[in-house]
Specification:
- This protein has 15 helices and 18 strands.
- It is of the alpha+beta class and 465 residues long.
- It folds into two domains: 246 residues, Beta-lactamase (3-Layer(aba) Sandwich); 144 residues, no CATH class.
- It has a five-stranded antiparallel beta sheet with strand order 2-1-9-8-7, sandwiched between helices.
- α2 runs parallel beside α5, α4 crosses α5 and α5 crosses α6.
- The longest helix is centred in the middle third of the chain and has 18 residues.
- The chain is elongated and about 70 Å long.
- About 24% of the residues have low confidence.
């Protein structure tokens, strides 16, 4: 009887350690990998779609880090808290509608405190709305190979269709570590200053008890149970473990510690690091097919104020920075996207600029050049009536007009999201040809330059006056 009782006690203990967290109402899933190579060392129900809870905030922060890197937003930008963000249930920082807080403090609150109000505010600051931000999160997940993950919000509270897997979240943790090492230390802080108050890390127990643990993120809802993605380093060996469906904080931490131990025991001491391939994010530029090529390029009808006997009219715009113009001939825009070097030369009719005819050629060579130029379509422009679009950006000075136009086209294709409303304009100055995008608001001009500078593209905003 004594032997049977002993066996039953062992079975009970093992059952407690490894069975799903039925009390929490959530299936159990787990995975552990060698972070250096991505090799799976152990998995259980790793592809079962479950509620990720606040593990969601790993992707929220990944997208925010990506936006900062691209120049879409700055760590020191001041964010105004919306009513929606302020109304999010706990865990939260306690932000009030209309309150202003820096982006860097929202990041700390979301990463360390797991604050739902901070996560929503981050999403709204980046994409304008939480719904749009969630769609961007999902696109990023797909680009990362998280094929069974769909996000519906930025915080992870239970919502229909908001699901992920242990495999996908393990992959997410690995990307955070390798793609943004400059920010990864945030997840290891046992407490941090959010600009509003000091907050403690929701993962502080594991960070304080497991040798080498340095992150990453906890999560809990009734539907999800107690979730955790944890990473630890020992002597250059790094292991990442994930648990979905824990029945308590203590149970979850114990199981994660066991998985990390298993990972260190199975991972080789020395192995070549194979970093995950960073996803290509942002708007893709669709190639122009031959079917889209323009076969005819009729010249626009002459304006009433053209000079008799001469079909070319140019605007004198040297030194003018308030270059607001809207292209009135859409055909030339299509052609500019097809030809490597745009053949349409935009001439902006500006406030206060005096129109005069182009000089006539004085010799035969100049006559031939003029005849070729006369065959080019002329872009007729007018003053913009759009309020507030009095800013421009300059992307460089070049020795020839063609070079300036080529750079403008290349830049427009690279930065379509902020320059889609701008007009490309080449202005001849005393030191060369200035390549400008005109017709921008001050905010959009500043954002465009931040994003271009992040890509090592020269850009300077130019104000009116």
């Amino acid at each position: 009887m004594t032997g049977i009782r002993f066996v039953l006690q062992v079975v009970f203990v093992l059952n407690f350690l490894i069975q799903p967290a039925l009390a929490a109402g959530a299936p159990y899933a787990a995975m552990v990998i060698d972070a250096r190579t991505g090799k799976v060392l152990h998995s259980r129900n790793a592809d079962t779609r479950l509620h990720p809870a606040s593990l969601t905030k790993m992707m929220t922060l990944y997208v925010v880090f990506d936006a900062v890197e691209k120049g879409e937003i700055s760590l020191d930008d001041v964010i105004t808290i919306s009513r929606k963000a302020a109304a999010e249930p706990p865990s939260k920082l306690g932000l009030k509608a209309g309150q202003k807080i820096r982006l860097r403090h929202l990041i700390r609150a979301a990463a360390v405190k797991s604050a739902n109000d901070a996560a929503t505010a981050l999403g709204e600051a980046i994409s304008g709305s939480e719904a749009a931000f969630a769609r961007r999160m999902t696109r990023t997940a797909q680009a990362m190979g998280m094929t069974r993950t769909t996000f519906k919000n930025a915080h992870g509270l239970t919502e229909a269709g908001h699901l992920s897997t242990a495999r996908d979240m393990t992959k997410m943790g690995r990307h955070l570590f390798y793609d943004f090492p400059q920010y990864y230390n945030i997840f290891s802080r046992k407490s941090t200053d959010t600009g509003v108050k000091m907050v403690s890390n929701t993962n502080r127990r594991l960070l304080g008890s497991y040798r080498g643990a340095d992150g990453i993120k906890t999560g809990f809802t009734r539907a999800a149970g107690y979730n955790l993605v944890a990473s630890a380093d020992r002597g250059g060996e790094r292991v990442i473990a994930t648990v979905f469906g824990g029945r308590s904080v203590a149970w979850r931490n114990t199981r994660v510690a066991e998985l990390l131990d298993m990972g260190f025991s199975r991972a080789p001491s020395r192995v070549a690091v194979v970093k995950p391939r960073r996803p290509v994010l942002g708007q893709a530029v669709k190639p122009v097919t031959s079917l889209a090529r323009v076969t005819q390029s009729p010249r626009p009808q002459a304006r009433p104020d053209r000079v008799p006997g001469d079909g070319t009219m140019v605007a004198i715009a040297d030194g003018v920075t308030d270059a607001l113009a809207e292209v009135a001939v859409a055909e030339t825009t299509t052609r500019a996207l097809v030809d490597p070097v745009p053949r349409a030369v935009a001439a902006a009719s500006l406030a206060g600029a005096q129109l005069r005819p182009a000089p006539r050629p004085s010799n035969r060579k100049d006559t031939q050049t003029a005849e070729l130029d006369a065959k080019k379509p002329v872009v007729v422009t007018r003053l913009s009536t759009s309020g507030g679009r009095h800013w421009a950006i300059n992307v460089g000075r070049f020795t020839t007009r063609d070079e300036a136009e080529r750079v403008l086209l290349q830049t427009a294709l690279v930065e379509m999201s902020t320059l889609d409303v701008a007009l490309r304009k080449v202005v001849r100055g005393t030191k060369g040809w200035e390549a400008n995008f005109v017709g921008l608001t001050e905010d959009r001009a500043a954002m465009a330059c931040r994003r271009l500078n992040a890509r090592n593209v020269s850009c300077n905003p130019v104000g009116p006056g």
